[in-house]
Write a structure and sequence with these properties.
Helices cover 40% and strands 14% of the residues. It has 25 helices and 17 strands. Strands 7-6-8-9-11-10-15 form a seven-stranded mixed sheet, sandwiched between helices. Strands 1-2-3-5-4 form a five-stranded parallel sheet, with helices on both faces. The chain has a five-stranded mixed sheet with strand order 12-14-13-16-17, with helices on both faces. The radius of gyration is 27 Å and the shape is elongated. The mean pLDDT is 91.
């Protein structure tokens, strides 16, 4: 790491000669590969933008100039070059550097970017703020990994075209998100091309016109329109970006760092909004990642020298909830021809690829577009199909209006499967599925359920696809469950019907979802010789609530503990308390759930201990209620 060890901050990088930058890029890749082989994270995306990262920090005066990253798993190289190389070994670990850029961690991290497609809007806001304060600040948005398919990106582009600004948008076009990118935008980007000689002449003409004072805003726009018209006539192709008065340059090779420096220097002081289209290869520079970019997006631990992944032995261990979802959906789809599968760019992540392989005509990857995924599902349901729309819980936040307006209002038969509900671990606060229960339980016409284990997931999926069930939400966590022999027979679960797992006399524990397994272990530890002290109820449904079961609890118990893996404020515990108050019961309720602040990154076990959802915390909460009951 000869050159990289000399670079603590971008100001050090800018002391190097341009001819030294390729070596910096290679060392940066080696450092990322070395660290991620033992401390897993998002590998392929950051390898693909090494040259872009180096060129940006070389040309621009960061952090005074703003670089706004989109899809934050591209930014590992950025972290290493901005004062965090020594701390990079703590990436995603409890107390270590964060998994995605955050202004709270570094002044070089200009905006939060755990979710996709927000860079253009944020960059435009920064450019307008700089202009209002009279600052000559450059602002660059780096959007890639499929994020241009998100609706917010287009909203940002629309505003960029009508608001005075000089921002540069870099389109990191690698034809990928996590899986292979899809859709008309991707096809458009693949076919889009311009003449390099034409671009070079336009660079020179633009600089000359700027020097002679001929580039006022109105004259510049007129020249851009004339240029666009001439180019469209010659190439028989309309450029969408230039049609929006955004100067388009490219596509260029995104792995030629010296050429990137030259281009960025030419574009740096050019007035008006600009888009630089760069072709890159996800996983570039590391052969295993180049060959299978989906697997190497986040490969886990691996041997850096051989590229051999270190895969845990899962023999006789419970499967991941996502795999049970994927296998069960395929089984149901074979039985019910109306079932279709929908995902916003996560077919592998949510295991919809299992059905996609056998029934490609009945599965739809809509790109990074959660709101569209829900409304698209609603449209299919309106005319007779039965969509299973799978979205990560944290990403479903972006579709809140669509769920209300385009599904719930019409009582459409859409099954919304929220994967990664609850704490997700090392991806941190942008990815924890913390808010879905509190946010969605207020919406009329929804059925909201969470399975305690794999058998319950299969039964709920079967129940949801039965006729006339209306909007049906099933939330389940990341990772493995608790049942090894998971392929149970299908069985209908009555809507709004919970389960009493254990009878008791002093304290009632009410859980929803897989946290119930942890609670059951805690109850066993609490009971000791007294086996009939603590009752355990699996609520199953957040909406509608099992009122018969709640009446039983309200009549019998004065002490209740509610446990959920969502936010405590407004969640399941709040729903139970509201119901008890409305029906004249006044128990003392201890609510366990996620706190009223964003939970940082760490292993799930570490985070559960911090927020009070681990076994010991549950034991303590139950013991406190037992002690108070007996006093």
């Amino acid at each position: 790491m000869g050159l990289l060890t000399q670079i603590q901050y971008p100001s050090d990088l800018r002391q190097l000669q341009v001819d030294q930058l390729p070596e910096v890029c290679e060392e940066l890749r080696e450092d990322i590969v070395k660290e991620l082989s033992v401390n897993p994270g998002h590998l392929a995306s950051s390898l693909g933008v090494a040259e872009i990262t180096v060129a940006l920090h070389y040309v621009y005066d960061t952090p005074e100039d703003r670089i706004v990253w989109d899809v934050g798993h591209q930014a590992y190289g950025h972290k290493i070059l901005t004062g965090r190389r020594e701390q990079f070994c703590t990436n995603r670990k409890l107390g270590g550097i964060r998994p995605f850029p955050s202004p709270e961690e570094s002044e070089y991290d200009t905006f939060m970017c755990g979710h996709a497609s927000n860079s253009i809007s944020a960059a435009l806001g920064m450019a307008v703020a700089a202009k209002a304060e009279g600052k000559n600040r450059h602002v660059v948005a780096v959007i890639g990994d499929g994020a241009m398919s998100g609706g917010l990106a287009f909203e940002g582009l629309n505003n960029v075209s009508s608001t005075p600004n000089d921002i540069l948008i870099i389109l990191n076009d690698n034809n990928m998100s996590i899986d292979r990118a899809v859709g008309g935008m991707q096809e458009y980007l693949l076919s889009l091309s311009t003449n390099e000689t034409y671009n070079a002449l336009r660079f020179k003409a633009s600089r000359w016109l700027h020097k002679v004072g001929f580039m006022s805003d109105e004259r510049r726009k007129g020249l851009i329109r004339l240029s666009n018209a001439i180019k469209s006539a010659i190439s028989h192709q309309q450029n969408m970006f230039e049609g929006m008065d955004i100067r388009y340059f490219g596509p260029f090779n995104g792995h030629n760092v010296k050429e990137l420096v030259r281009i960025l220097r030419q574009l740096k002081d050019m007035k008006g909004p600009k888009l630089l289209h760069l072709h890159t290869q996800k996983g570039h520079g590391y052969a295993p990642a180049e060959k299978d970019v989906t697997v190497w997006h986040a490969p886990g631990k691996f041997d850096a020298e051989t590229g051999e992944r270190i895969i845990k032995d899962t023999t006789n261990k419970p499967p991941r909830f996502q795999d049970v979802f994927g296998e069960t959906l395929l089984e149901l789809a074979r039985q019910n021809e109306k079932i279709v599968g929908v995902t916003p760019a996560m077919p592998t992540g949510c295991s919809l690829n299992i059905m996609m392989k056998e029934m490609p005509e009945r599965t739809f990857d809509v790109g990074i577009a959660e709101g569209h995924a829900v409304t698209f599902s609603g449209g299919m349901a309106k005319d007779g199909l039965l969509p299973f729309c799978n979205i990560y819980s944290a990403f479903s936040q972006r579709a809140f209006d669509n769920i209300i307006h385009d599904v719930a209002l019409l009582k459409l038969n859409v099954v919304l499967c929220l994967d990664r509900a609850g704490l997700v671990g090392e991806d941190g606060p942008t990815h924890h599925g913390a808010f879905d229960m509190a946010a969605l339980r207020i919406v009329p016409n929804l059925t909201i359920a969470s399975p305690m284990d794999e058998h319950e997931l299969r039964k709920l999926m079967y129940t949801a696809q039965l006729p006339d069930r209306g909007p049906f939400i099933i939330r389940y966590p990341r990772g493995s469950g608790s049942v090894v022999d998971w392929r149970c027979p299908f069985e209908e679960i009555p809507i709004g019907k919970g389960r009493k797992l254990r009878d008791g006399s002093d304290v009632a524990v009410i859980t929803i979802g897989p946290i119930g397994v942890q609670a059951a272990a805690a109850i066993d530890a609490c009971s000791g010789a007294t086996t009939n002290t603590i009752a355990h109820y699996d609520l199953r449904f957040l909406k509608p609530l099992d009122e018969e079961m709640l009446h039983e609890i309200g009549r019998k118990f004065q002490r209740i503990v509610t446990i959920e893996d969502g936010v405590r404020n407004g969640g399941m515990g709040s729903a139970v308390m509201e119901w008890m108050e409305d029906h004249g019961y006044h128990p003392i309720v201890k609510r366990l759930g996620l706190p009223d602040h964003f939970v940082e990154h760490g292993t799930i076990a570490q985070l559960q201990a911090i927020v009070g959802l681990d076994k010991e915390s549950i034991i303590n909460a139950i013991s406190e209620q037992l002690t108070a009951k007996r006093q």
